[in-house]
């Protein structure tokens, strides 16, 4: 790039890389010029009639500079149609990227747009191709437990555990009484979530729990008796 105001650009375009029939032919007729705000160097924006647009920073210092593409701004409809054609043929994203001379991410990105450049959803049947599965979000199948829970046995164990904990709370004399309630007992044995969510599968445990649960009045009476014993310094 040099000459009038140091801006001379050889009108050259690689075409739509690997897709257009005018690939690596000097066919560009439209050129826009600007200067880099950071370096002050000239920047040419090249537009092909097929929609491919790229830019590069000058000046050109050698004959090979005319083949250099700095930044691709738009691939154009021919490139997108070619990519879509390969997709419909069942080629993997990696294979298409190699054929079109781009990276895999570029192929994936542009496969999400239709002819007008509008975003579209990827076809659900893309996952029939094994090579595509690595590029798409996989829905992991729900794991099935090898050993099913024996709820009858679990219910028996928990009912004994609940009974022991309730008796312990009722017989404790060294510290201030705690009301025997469902959530309190369940938390103390570390089974709150299980007991809340699986009540229908633990009938024996829930029945034992209900036998020991205190009403407000029952707890108040027990607390008064405990306080009286503490005052006398005696135990029952």
Would you mind describing this structure in some detail?
With 236 residues, the chain is α+β, with helices and mostly antiparallel strands. The chain has three domains: 4-74, no CATH class; 78-133, no CATH class; 151-229, no CATH class. Helices cover 39% and strands 9% of the residues. It contains nine helices and four strands. The chain has helices spanning 77-88, 93-100, 104-110, 130-133, 151-171, 182-188, 192-197, 203-212, 216-232, and strands spanning 30-35, 42-47, 53-57, 71-74. The protein has a four-stranded antiparallel beta sheet with strand order 1-2-3-4, with no helix packed on it. Mean pLDDT is 75; it is low at 1-17 and 121-130.
